Each structure stands twice: as structure tokens, then as C-alpha cells.
Amino acid sequence: MIAVVKVGGSLETDPHRRRALLASLADGALGRCIVVPGGGTFAGAVRAAQVRDRFSDAEAHRRALDAMSDAAGIFRGIEPRLVQSLDPWSETAPARARVWNPRRLRAGHPDIPETWDVTSDSLALWLAREVGAERCVLVKSRDPAPGQDAAALAQDGLVDAAFPAFAERFAGRIEIWGPAQRVAVAPRVMA
């Protein structure tokens, strides 16, 4: 069983929680897992630079991937037991917890639009599908409302705009962990 756990960049403002979470994952709290780092202030700097320098969304997407790569290095600095991985779906080493470095996606991928609609939230779901994970957890700095589906979470701004489409393609369980509660994302209701 594999879990993908996206640790939001917003947890930079709660370093104790982030450190405790990374240690817990390295200890095996969820079994084998792959940690997806959010871009945090690094991604914020990319957004500001795009406004200032007017480069394309595709270039911003590549720079945001670099921001996630930088965050992966910070996570390894915080919790050295995390093994950095570029291709976690093809590695067979028995590491309990890996931190994903998405740098190889800079070359593009047909399943991933290169816009701000796709952030580390959707990339975590994409990775979860790639590795056949049974569970994808998004750790956030605010609690979600219970009973929301992916579309409602995107509408609320808790996840990115592309998240509902990526959620439809993922067969496993999706959870949002806020500071006070853990909530399963409700299945999409078909009209």
C-alpha cells in the first residue's frame, strides 16, 4: 500500500506542525508514502515575478516546479530520513518515505496543463495515480468543510482549479488534513 501526502507550502507558517508531520511520515505512520512538497513562498515569488516580468504561464509552471524542488530539499533538511526521488514509480529501494522532486516534469507532460490551474494539489493526485496509490492526502493550513466534493473544494479555493478533473481520474481515497480535522473528500455526485 502506498500513500501520497502533499504537504502544503502554507505550513511554512507552522514549522512545528510541518516538522512533526514529516517525522511521523518518516516513522511510517502511513506505511510507504511519497511526500509531495508545496511550493510555498518560492511559488509565491514565481507569481510575483510573472506579474513583474510578464513571462508565460508555461514558464511560470516550470519555475513553480523548481519551487517545489527547492521545497523538497528543505524537507530533506528538516527530516533526513526522507529519501529524495525523481521517479518514485520506478524505484524499488525499500525506503519507507520518499520526498518527490518534480524537476523532470519541467520538460512537460501531456496529462499536465502548464498553467496556474495546476498546483502541487493536482500534481499530488497525478502522482498518486502514476504510482497506483490507494490514498492521497493533502495537508493544509486551514480546515475544509466536511462533505465537500473536489469541485466544491476548488470553488472554495482550498485546492486548485484543475483538482476536480484530476480527482475524477484517481480511483483511491482523497483526504484533506487541516490543523484541527481530517476530512475525506466526498465522491462527485452525478446529475
Can you walk me through this structure?
This protein has helices at residues 15-26, 40-53, 57-78, 120-131, 150-155, 163-169; strands spanning 2-7, 32-37, 83-85, 97-100, 135-139, 173-177, 182-184. The mean pLDDT is 92. The protein is globular. A 7-stranded mixed β-sheet has the order 3-4-2-1-5-6-7, sandwiched between helices. The protein is built from 6 helices and 7 strands, in the order E-H-E-H-H-E-E-H-E-H-H-E-E. The chain has one domain (2-184): Carbamate kinase, CATH 3.40.1160.10. The longest helix is centred in the middle third of the chain and has 22 residues, at 57-78. It has 191 residues and is α/β, with parallel strands linked by helices. The N and C termini lie far apart (33 Å). Helix 4 packs parallel to helix 6. Helix 1 (15-26) links the parallel strand 1 (2-7) and strand 2.
